[in-house]
Structure formats: structure tokens, C-alpha cells
Amino acid sequence: MKKIVVIILLVTAIYAKAQSPNKLFGREPIINLENFQKQRLYFGFYLGFNSYDFKIDYKTVSEDILVTKSTGFNVGLVANLRLQEYVSLRFEPGLYYTTRDLQYSTSYFPAVPAPTPTDLLRQVNSTYIHFPLLLKFLSLRTGNVRPYLLGGVSTTLNLSSNSKSIDDNYEDLFRVQPWTTNYELGFGIDIFSEYFIFSPSIRGVFGINDELIRDNNPNSPWTGNIESMKTRGVFINFTFH
What we know:
- The protein is mainly beta.
- It has one domain: Porin (Beta Barrel), CATH 2.40.160.20.
- It is about 10% helix and about 50% strand.
- The chain has helices at about 1-20, 20-25, 115-120, and strands at about 40-60, 65-70, 70-85, 85-90, 95-105, 120-140, 145-160, 180-190, 195-205, 225-240.
- Strand 3 and strand 4 form a beta hairpin.
- It is elongated, with a radius of gyration of 22 Å.
């Protein structure tokens, strides 16, 4: 995530540098797209990155299951409905792809037979269709820059959940629920150019419901000691209106 944050800062800095400083922050800047956000409804699209994790709670004290995260990608559309001057309602459906590895300790398994390296590792590939409904709280506009806060709820369909399979971890298949619900919080900045609004943002996503599907054996070493497993993640999006 440090690399992703550096990327968003660099992209924003490069974009701002490409604009004349007087256009963005000068005493008398040229105001771009002055009335664009006064429209009742407008649209856009976004591209971005994600880093998903799992928050795991356990039934009994045990060694943590280590979650190895990777950087995934996002792409989607934006519909912005102006409610009043400083508040908008946003719908941002998108496609999100990510991979997480679950590394189990040998203490989860009986000593005989000894677990294999395959037993100790489960890869969770996820292809999400994400449906967030967010409130955007805008600050006062300063020149061609306008910060904002975001918050709301979302529901997510995991196309790679394996939820309909009768196989489980004993057949090397990790299963999760197809639908999850989340709440989201974030912030961003609108930068107004001559022709469009460039809007980098960062957002935290926190799962509400337990999404793990337990193995058929209640004493399974992979799922037997898990009380709940919830998604959490960070999104960095670059939006264009």
C-alpha cells in the first residue's frame, strides 16, 4: 500500500505540475468548468488499484492465519446526483480483481500425517462486482481544487466464491459467500482542468458479515477454528468526469 500511496501522490503532482500553478492556486486563477458540478446529474468513469485483506476472529486462542495481500485493479462507472451545493449521492458500480493467500501454521494440523506445503496454503482469488452507494461531502472550492469526504455502504458479488461447489478444502477448494455487505469511508480531491475533472481518492472498505463457508467436517483444520472472516480493503481510484 505504501507503493500505491506514492503512485497516487506522484500522479497528482504530475497532473498539477502540468497545469499552470496560477490556474490551480493563483490569486486570480482561471476558473475551469465553473458550473459543471452544478448539474443535477453527471457521469464519469474510474480506474484504480485495490489491496484486500481478511479480518479473522477465532473461536479459541491459536496462531494467526497469515494473510498475504496483493495489489489488484479496479475499473468502473460513476453516476453523481447533486443533492445540494455541498452534498452529492454517488453510485459507483465496478469490477474489482484481487488475490489473497492464507498461510496456515502446522499447529492447525495433526502431527500424523504431517501436513504438506499444499495443505498449509490456500489461495483466494476474487473477482468482485462492487455496488457502492456513497455520499460525497464537498468543501468550498479554492481556485481549481476542491477536497471532499466520502462515506456510505456497498454490496459485493464475488464471481469466484465457489459457493455452489460441494467440494471443500479437503479437495483444495476454499469457499466464501457470494454476497457481502460493507461500509466505506474515504477522501479525495477534485482538480478542475480545462476539459474535465480529475479526481484521485483513497477509501477504506470494511466487511460487515461473515463470508466464510465452513468445510463439511466441523473439525476441519482450515475452517473449524474460525469464528468469522470479513473482508477489509483499501481502494485508490482515479476518476474522470
